[in-house]
Structure formats: structure tokens, C-alpha cells
UniProtKB/TrEMBL annotation, chains A, B:
Active site: 195
Site-annotated residues for Involved in the stabilization of negative charge on the oxyanion by the formation of the oxyanion hole: 122-123
A Pfam family it matches: ArgJ
Protein name: Arginine biosynthesis bifunctional protein ArgJ
Keyword Acyltransferase: yes
Superkingdom classification of source: Bacteria
Subunit: Heterotetramer of two alpha and two beta chains.
Gene (name only): argJ
């Protein structure tokens, strides 16, 4: 597939999208906290994937309803509060947000119903949103909508919580159509803190079914395989919106590849900016009986606190990798397992390799490869080390 | 049941047992590293439970074979090396350890076969044991065997790795028979670092079947519900040995209760001494559909890094508890969940309670109770916070 990926552009890179990010006063810090992504059309097909957590935030419950229509005109996102565990009043706040935004867009000239407005929230769980600040912001942000690249960048900044950098990516296919995206957080099935949110846009012409297929295939291989600490939020949401403004109808294969490229790059950016990260770690399991078992094994190792603290200490402690893999719910034969760090064998057929304790892991990137020697399937999970900074940041978040 | 529990006595509290602990030179630090528990009889019935990790250390593979006979004459334990992931040569080292100890005991006057000798090891995974130091120690330690309380205490010290205190407990039943025990580590299904090892002794008259029942019932409620970091070792072993020296044949109910009392106290001691602990945390789930679901839910919360770092920060961040419980593989209704910290309600029917953010968690003991409102089953998991000290200790262990 021909095309190029840029990190300097996001959701407004494709034609037909405007975006904005403003300071509505939701965050006590005074930083930007309200974002809007608006689809000018001509089409409004959309797809979404949501958290698997049984405790779902009000905006997730609402947006799931919106997505059953297969159409999204606008996505409004706030940081500074997750609006989770807030009961019926919290759901009413989300509903009102969609209604007020729809009214503002209608007044602005684009007739919009609340059911066309997806809502995403991120921040501390359990507190009500300050609606007296959020509602005026909804009118203000509609007037800030800009079609240029800067609108997307403003939106990407306004959804940040503990992120230290905004995360954007855009894939230009042959100069004819584009997929753009923004994200915040550090994981899909396993984000740190409150939430992983991402909005992906495209000007390709595509049906809701085509968008669904592309989005599910891409998230399965990217956000779902980013696992910082095994925790999954109440608010995780990834949305894919199509304006069709390019007039180009790509093949499903090309659409899948472009959406995958954007999601993969956003996932890499999230890993690099994860809370307290000092090491960017990829855990690859090869020779598994099935891809599902490879994922399960890599995830078990990626979540193991003893492996993660060892990597923080640049310690090639492969015994902890063996102990972790032995707890994975998969088929294995301990005597066939081999392990390498950054290409250096440390364990061969279940026994330590010469020089294993001397492998240098002081660099920032660690690729841990575990060969099970059972079958042909493989998978990679992106993760991080477990550092003092992780403990520090997460022990002082709400207070 | 009448009786009393003492922490000043261990495996030699029951009649018919001798023990010792010596410095064999296995540990580079020069600290005690070899322990022996010897059953003088007249009986040698025994039961054991072992790690569920698929990667099992050589001493586990050996001792599982020994326990199939239902009899154990002696348990030899070393710290300073786990003898795990050491292949066939490592297994030969364990076998030789049992043979050399059996020979030393036979020379000393008690005819013993290698198949009567259980072996336990703890320490770094992946290195061979220094047999040139261990083997001479086996003869030496037989001559150090002492029947008094001090022998048990010496043994309890010699199995320590990152433990800061030796862990012993003895339950005296009506002054007629006794269950004594020692342990090291911080968990059974989920220990920190290399291993949880425990040897329990009794002078009650009991069959292998009775011991098995008592041991499995006790470990299920104690060591299995201690979960410091979700990691499980290659070496975990709990053994229960009976000498029958009291001549008293207790009811199964009394035996179960006495073994449970000792295991429960040892588990509490392990929680209090877990790596990097600054908070002793109990997570109780009530109102679950089944006891298994209560355990699964409590374990999910107890393993959640975001919950554990919040507790380290004395932060009553109940939203993280809700997010964690939502990932548990159980039946739940978010709107029926209530949460309390140390008796203070922080979440009622899925919504924050007044004053929830002000609950004082600065003390060392935290009892987190989650009511699911689904059924009548409940369970408690003991765990700890996730602290800087945990990261420090585990990032600098092997190097």
C-alpha cells in the first residue's frame, strides 16, 4: 500500500472534519479540557469499540446507543472528570451534554440531533461533572471549530490527563484519501488511570459495516495489545468517523491497512508516554499453539510485577520470565521454552544460557522474545516497566 | 476448640520433631541458608501442596514424588538458590541432596531412604546450587539437630530470603497435642520473589488422608488467599508432617481447626512482612453469588496496581476499586455495589457517598469491603500496597 504517516496531523487531516479544543474550566488546573470533532459530511457513517469493563461510565452507555445508529455527526470529549459511578444524575449530565451540543450545532447552521452526538469523558471516577462550566463551553467550542490542522491539534491537547504529549497521527493514501486520529491514555483493554480515548477520522467513502470491520481489526492488533498495568477503565472508547469527502471508495483491504497504520502509531505513542515509563517494552511470544495463546502468554508476562520491576532495574532476570510464563493459561512444555532479551539468548530449552546475567538492558527499548516451541502462532504485547515514577504518579492522583 | 497460639514456637513445638538451621555457605551474604526438619516418629505420615505454576523447580518435582508415598522422614530446605530452570543437572542435584541427607541420617542412627526426604529450595531462579558447599552442610546439620524450641527457630531463620523476620506459630490443643509451623515468603498462589515455603508439624496421631484433608482445607483459606503481587513461584511448597508422638488421635474437626489456626497465623505474618509493605490490606467481598466468585473478585481488586498505589498514598480512591471490580470474571450489577474503607462507606449502590474523599487511610491497616448485593457468599484476600520499597527491592534483586 502506498502512503505516508505523519505525526504532525490528526483528526482534521482528512477532508470534511473540523475540530477544536478549549479551556472550559472543568479542570482545576485551568488547562484545556473540552474537545470537539465535527463531521461536515457529506456522509456520517461511524463505528465504535468500547471498554469491556462491566462498570461503564455514563458517556460509554450513551455513546454505545449513538453508535447503534451507525452514524455520528460530532464527538464531544472532556477531560477533568470521568463521569463514571455517578448514577442516573451522571447519565442525565451526559444526555444533556449531547442535547446542548446538538442545539449549538443547529444554531450554528448544521441541523443536528442529540442522537448524532457521541460523548467521551476522562478523569477521576466518581465525581459529577461541573455542568455549569461544561454547558457554556459547548456553545463556545462550536464557534472555535476550525478546519485546519490546528483544530485537530487543539482537540488532541484538550483530552490529555496525565499524558505529557498530545498524540496524533495521519495516514495519507496516495494523496487521494486520508485517515487521521488522536488519542490519550495508555491502553485499550489495559489503560493506566482513567481512560484510553481515541477518535479516528477518514474522508474515504465507506459504509458503517466497512468502518466496523476496519476498526475492530485494527484495535485487536494495536490498542488491545497495549498493556501498561492490566487495569481497564470504565470509559475506554475508540471511534472511527467517515466524512466521505474525498469521494474515493477504497478497497476494504486498503481501508483496513490505513486504519491499522494510524492505530498502531497512536498505540506506540501511548506506550512511549505511559505513566512512569522508563523502558519501552515489547513482549513477543512465538511458537504458540494459537494466536490467542500467544496473546495470553505475552499479556501474562507483560503484566507481571516482578518482570516489570526487574526491567526497571535493567536486570536480565529471565527466571522471573519463566515463572510468569508458567502461570499463563496456555499449553506449554517448560523444557522447550527459550527466552531472549534484545536478541541475546538468556534461556534455551528451559535452562539458563551462558552469559545470561550479563546482558545489557540499560537502554530504553527492550524486546523480550519467548519461544514456546509448540506451534507456529505468535503475538506481541507492548508494555512498560514498573518504576518509582509509576508508583509516585498513581499514589498521588486523586488527592 | 480449646487451645492457644504462640508465635515463639515453631516446628519443634510438637513432640517427636527436631530441627536445625546452619550456615552452609550457599548464600554469598554468609547468613544461615540450610534448614532441616526431622521426624523422630513413631509415625511419619505426611501431606503436601505444591505450586500451580507449570514451570516447577527440581525440588518440587522431587518432593511431589516423595509425597506420593504419604510418608516423610525429613525435610531439607535451602535458601540462596531456587534450583529452578536448571534442567536435568538441577534435578540430579536435588536427588543427590536427598540421598546424601538420607545417608547422613542413617549414619547418625536413623535408617532413612532418599525417598523419605522432601527437598525445598528458595532464591534466584536459573542458577545451579553450589553442591560443594551444600553437601558437606548436610552432614553438619544432622549433628546440629536439636529437639528444643531453638532448633525450630534456627530452621525458620535459615529459610529466609528477603524476609525481615522469621515466621513461626504453634497451636497447643488442650495441652495434649500440638501443631507447629514455620514459613518464609509472601504468598502461596501469589508470592513475591522466589517462593513461599512452609513446613507444619504435629504430634497428633493422624493418617495421610487426614493430614491431606486438614492441609488442603487450611491452605485454601489462608496461603491461597494471600496475594501480594499476583506472581506465583516455581518452588511453592507447604508440607504437613505428623509424628504421632502425643499418642492422641484428635477428631478431623479438631485437627482441621488446629492446622488452620497455624496456617492462618503464618499467612498473617507473611502479609505483614511482605516486600515493600507499608499497609496491611484485607479485601473482603460480600454478597457474591458463590464463594469462588467472591474469591475471584477480591483477588482482582487485590492485584490491581492502581488500587494498590492509591492505598500506598493513603488515598480513598474508590473509583479505582469500582474499575477493578468491573473487570472481575463474575456476576455483578454495578448499581448494587457498595464499598467501604475501614467501615466508612465510600460508595453506595454504585455512586459515591458523602465524605468519601475525606476518609482517613493513613494507618497501617486497611480493610476494604465490597458488597456486591447479588448473593450470600463472601471471601477475604490478604494483600499489601504497591510502594516505592516494593519497586526498589524487586528492581535490584538478582543484580
Amino acid at each position: 500500500m502506498n502512503g505516508k504517516l505523519l505525526r504532525t496531523q490528526g483528526v482534521t487531516a482528512p477532508a470534511g472534519f473540523r475540530a477544536a479544543g478549549i479551556k472550559a474550566g472543568i479542570k482545576k488546573s485551568g488547562k484545556a479540557d473540552l474537545a470537539l470533532v465535527f463531521n461536515e459530511g457529506p456522509e456520517t457513517a461511524a463505528a465504535g469499540v468500547f471498554t469491556s469493563n462491566k462498570v461503564k461510565a455514563a458517556p460509554v452507555l450513551w455513546s454505545q446507543q449513538v453508535l447503534t445508529t451507525g452514524r455520528v455527526r460530532a464527538v464531544v470529549l472532556n477531560s477533568g472528570g470521568a463521569n463514571a459511578c455517578t448514577g442516573a444524575p451522571g447519565f442525565q449530565d451526559t444526555h444533556r451534554t449531547a442535547e446542548e451540543l446538538a442545539a449549538a450545532l443547529s444554531n450554528w447552521g448544521t441541523e443536528t440531533g442529540a442522537i448524532e452526538v457521541a460523548v467521551c469523558s476522562t478523569g477521576l471516577i466518581g465525581d459529577r461533572l461541573p455542568m455549569e462550566k461544561l454547558v457554556p463551553g459547548l456553545t463556545e467550542i462550536v464557534h472555535e471549530l476550525a478546519g485546519g490542522i490546528s483544530g485537530g491539534t487543539d482537540a488532541a491537547h484538550a483530552i490529555m490527563t496525565t499524558d505529557t504529549v498530545a498524540k496524533e497521527a495521519a495516514f495519507h493514501h496516495d494523496g487521494k484519501w486520508v485517515v487521521g486520529g488522536m488519542a490519550k491514555g495508555a491502553g485499550m483493554l489495559a489503560p493506566a488511570l482513567a481512560t484510553m480515548l481515541s477518535v479516528i477520522t477518514t474522508d474515504a467513502v465507506a459504509t458503517t459495516e466497512q468502518l466496523n470491520q476496519a476498526l475492530r481489526a485494527a484495535t485487536r492488533l494495536t490498542f488491545d495489545r497495549l498493556d501498561v498495568d492490566g487495569a481497564s477503565s470504565t470509559n475506554d472508547t475508540v471511534l472511527l468517523l467517515s466524512s466521505g469527502a474525498s469521494g474515493v471508495e477504497p478497497s476494504q483491504e486498503d481501508l483496513d491497512a490505513a486504519v491499522l497504520a494510524v492505530c498502531d502509531d497512536l498505540a506506540a505513542q501511548m506506550m512511549a508516554d505511559a505513566e512512569g515509563v522508563t523502558k519501552r517494552v515489547r513482549v513477543t511470544v512465538t511458537g504458540a499453539a494459537t494466536e490467542d495463546e500467544a496473546v495470553a502468554a505475552a499479556r501474562t508476562v507483560a503484566r507481571d510485577s516482578l518482570v516489570k520491576t526487574a526491567l526497571f532495574g535493567s536486570d536480565p532476570n529471565w527466571g522471573r520470565v519463566m515463572a510468569a510464563i508458567g502461570m499463563a493459561p496456555i499449553t506449554l512444555d517448560p523444557d522447550r521454552i527459550s527466552v531472549s532479551f534484545n536478541g541475546n539468548p538468556v534461556c534455551i530449552d528451559g535452562v539458563g544460557a551462558p552469559g545470561a546475567r550479563e546482558v545489557d538492558l540499560t537502554g530504553e527499548d527492550i524486546h523480550l522474545v519467548i519461544s514456546l516451541g509448540i506451534g507456529d502462532a505468535e503475538a506481541t504485547i507492548r508494555t512498560t516497566d514498573l518504576s518509582h515514577a509509576y508508583v509516585e504518579e498513581n499514589s498521588a492522583y486523586s488527592s
